[in-house]
UniProtKB/TrEMBL annotation:
This is LL-diaminopimelate aminotransferase. Pathway: Amino-acid biosynthesis; L-lysine biosynthesis via DAP pathway; LL-2,6-diaminopimelate from (S)-tetrahydrodipicolinate (aminotransferase route): step 1/1. Its cofactor is pyridoxal 5'-phosphate. GO terms for biological process: lysine biosynthetic process via diaminopimelate, diaminopimelate-aminotransferase pathway. Its EC number is 2.6.1.83. Substrate binds at residues 15, 42, 109, 132, 186, 291, 387. It holds the Pfam family Aminotran_1_2. CDD domains: AAT_like. Pyridoxal 5'-phosphate binds at residues 72, 108-109, 132, 186, 217, 245-247, 256, 291. Involved in the synthesis of meso-diaminopimelate (m-DAP or DL-DAP), required for both lysine and peptidoglycan biosynthesis. Catalyzes the direct conversion of tetrahydrodipicolinate to LL-diaminopimelate. Residues 35-397 form the Aminotransferase class I/classII large domain.
Length: 411
């Protein structure tokens, strides 16, 4: 028989969302009349904006005509989109990013998962805890994580983010080579302000670490002191790769498009002691394993940067953030402690009365017919917390808040 990558055997099966579904189904069977409001999985509910739909219709027509037909595109993405990204996402914020530093992809999950291809399997990794599980699991697959002991991987450094430290992770102690940061954060909805992020860039410079900065929720930032890009911090181009996604910005979860910025300043060390450009390595990796995001989808992404597109995207984000604010207020009024929901579409709730994440899941389902996500599913420091998303429909969010008002809690 074929030998397999044994690292996959180290990974425990992921039961989080299937366990959630099982409990919801059992509840439904017992209470067929209750309309369950699902606020768990982080998918969006609002349609793609008209500007992007129109662009896709035009692109479909292009594909129907021999003159305008597009076959394989550049692996790095079309310049029409990369140029818009450079101008609107970076140059307008006085950040100098070269078009060759932008790599269009089919989303941030692939890129945050694949970036390890260009890094040594010896690299030590640090993650904030709780965390988007892709960062951890892909390092397990690559053999960087060691063994699972009491819910923690032996070779991964966990940086707890809890109410006790205001969800601001401490700098690492184990000298990691690679640090994953995700801000605005999934699942906690919290952020780092400029001076907090500066400390990380300084740390990475002083300790030769690489920061993998996931800003999939950048479009939800409302407060002025929160950086939209790590490259707003001087020197970050020497230490950080940034990942962006159109999924939550513009409802592209089903269309699939995102991009990654790999600055040319970033250098790695080969085993022969040579300095190698990470941009060149990522380019090589993409050209070998990826044939580019689809032309139609890249035209849709381009349209998000038009005047109309930008306006329409803002409207949808405002719709979700109205939900977020309703939810925050409703949960607080029910006597719960909440974070997030100001610069992110996620609300992070402290479970009341010392309940575990799963006990609170059951309570909220039984008392209110609301299904969220147990915080412990995102890492050990998520125990005792719970995630609700603002991506639902407004009417459902209003109904959820109404139901929450009847919740009697023993804190
Ligand atoms: N990064 C974070 C932090 C996310 O929460 C998600 C999706 O939930 C992604 C990346 C994936 O984004 P995409 O849809 O672009 O693959």
């Amino acid at each position: 028989m074929i030998k397999i990558n044994d690292n996959f055997c180290e990974l425990p099966a992921s039961y989080l969302f299937s366990d959630v579904a099982k409990r919801i189904n059992a509840f439904k069977a017992e209470h067929p009349d209750v309309e369950i409001i699902k606020m768990g999985i982080g998918d969006v509910t609002q349609p793609i904006c008209p500007a992007a739909i129109q662009a896709m219709e035009n692109a479909v027509a292009d594909q129907a005509d021999r003159v305008t037909f597009h076959g394989y595109g550049p692996e790095q993405g079309y310049d029409f989109l990369r140029r818009r990204i450079v101008d609107v996402d970076y140059r307008s914020r006085n950040i100098d990013i070269d078009i060759d530093e932008i790599f269009i992809s089919d989303g941030a999950k692939s890129d945050t998962g694949n970036i390890g291809d260009i890094l040594s399997t010896d690299c030590k990794v640090a993650v904030t805890d709780p965390v988007y599980p892709v960062y951890v699991d892909t390092n397990v697959m690559a053999g960087r994580a060691g063994h699972l002991v009491d819910g923690r991987w032996s070779r991964i450094e966990y940086l707890p983010c809890t109410a006790e430290n205001g969800f601001i992770p401490s700098l690492p102690k184990d000298n990691p080579d690679v640090i994953y940061l995700c801000y605005p954060n999934n699942p906690t909805g919290t952020t780092l302000n400029r001076s907090q992020l500066e400390k990380w860039v300084e740390y990475a410079k002083d300790n030769n670490a690489l920061i993998l900065f996931d800003s999939a929720y950048e479009a939800y930032i409302t407060e002025p002191d929160i950086p939209h890009s790590i490259y707003e911090i001087p020197g970050a181009k020497e230490v950080a790769i940034e990942f962006r996604s159109f999924s939550k910005t513009a409802g592209f979860t089903g269309l699939r498009c995102g991009y990654t910025v790999v600055p040319k300043e970033l250098k790695g060390l080969s085993k022969n002691g040579d300095e190698v450009s990470l941009n060149a390595l990522w380019n090589r990796r993409q050209c070998t394993k990826f044939n580019g995001a689809s032309y139609i989808v890249q035209r849709a992404a381009e349209a998000l940067y038009s005047t109309k597109g930008r306006h329409q995207v803002k409207e949808t984000i405002a719709y979700y953030m109205r939900n977020a604010s309703l939810l925050r207020n409703g949960l607080s009024a029910a006597g719960l402690e909440v974070w997030g929901g100001v610069n992110a579409p996620y609300i992070w709730v402290k479970t009341p009365g010392g309940l575990s994440s799963w006990e609170f899941f059951d309570l909220l389902l039984e008392k209110c017919g609301i299904a969220g996500t147990p915080g412990v599913g995102f890492g050990p420091s998520g125990e005792g917390y719970f995630r609700l998303t603002a991506f639902g429909r407004y009417e459902d969010t209003v109904a959820a808040v109404e139901r929450l008002s009847s919740l009697k809690l023993n804190k």
